[in-house]
Amino acid sequence: MNKNSSNIMALVPKTSNKRETVCIFGTGDFGRALGHKLIQSGYPVVFGSRSPWPSSLIPKDAEVLNHAEAAQKAAIIIIAIQRQHYDFLASLEETLHGKVLVDISNNLKINQYPESNAKYLAQLVPGARVVKAFNTVSAWALQSGTLDASRQVFVCGDDTEAKQMVMDIIRALGLTPLDQGSLLAAREIENYPLQLFPMWKIPIFLSLGLTAFFFFYCLVRDVIYPYVYENKDYSFFLAISIPNRICPIIALVLLALVYLPGILAAIIQLYRGTKYSRFPDWLDKWMLCRKQLGLVALAFASLHVIYTLVIPIRYYVRWRIEDRTISQALNNKTTPFDNTNGWLSDSYLALGILGFLLFVLLGITSLPSVSNNVNWREFRFVQSKLGYLTLILCTAHTLVYGGKRFLSPSAYRWYLPNAYMLSLIIPCIVLVVKFVLILPCLDKQLTRIRQGWERNPQYSEQSNYVINKSAV
Asked: What is the DSSP string of 85-123?
């Protein structure tokens, strides 16, 4: 008997690789795109629609039925309709009992409803197993091959088995499921697509504020002052000269602000004597947007390079060179070569070239496609060691550019120093404090703290108690 059974089993074709039928409620853009992708991945697809007849827009291998008939053919039903049209699902409560309902809906604004759409669906059909997924993927991404960041699909649900079934489908589609836990996470997942560059807000607003400040600062010093006291119209400086002064200033300041929160975090850890105490919220947010700050700084540095390359073809520059040459010829006078100025000029350019080269290297390694291919030690070496070297070179580039003008009274118009002098304040503070922190007496203690040593363990316990109490 066992022998015959084994023979019969050997002759039966394997059906373990056969895909189960997936039902999709809704024949809109996303429903059709998802259905087409499921069919390509080997899943039988049935559409549930209020208009159950064939259409040229529906994938040809899919079946179209009314909602009740379509729901009976599948254990997994993807709800590809908006929340305001969920009401009809209540009439299908008996049919949907025990089914896995995948809510993919999004809202028009953050926290639009008291509860998440997935939670509302679970309340509307209490016998179903609701899973939130696919709301971070667009129809265009499904049609174009789901490249890069669009491969990630956030998933949450209270039923572990149902959630695993949905994640298996996601993997079969060539996507990457990210388990976010229970259905309580649905509100956060639904808010995610509505956020407009959440990590870029601080860098962008900060750079815009700095740009506005230094623009008006340079306008006063370089345009208004000469017009008032020398009766010279330098308004054309607004096109090239002033932007070429603002861009390197903002690039240097933002680069210093990338490394300043790390300095502050080290000081806080040394002061508290532990790494288990939470940083202030403003410092946490600052540290989370350091990558974006660096990329914005790189953008301003690149603009500075472009503006600098066009200097020789500017009419004003060519006119000054020609005027000076003719003046020396008429006066039969030449200016002797100054070896010191030659060194300063070449050093200034060399430091700028090297600084920008490392700047670009930092930007490249921050890209996900590159950072994913290096280990943590390599990434830290580039972003920390080479990052500080970049800051040193760019700061030295600015210092050499200033030369002796720091002490020249004529450099202070209306008692206002050159804008590049202001740009050196934060970088110099960062470099000086960093130099102090790498002294053996402090670096050794900071390393011990980051490895888990605590000067006063009760302090971290009290801090955690305060944080937990405030969160209740």
From this structure: GGGGGGGGHHHHTT-EEEE----SSTT-SSS-HHHHHHH
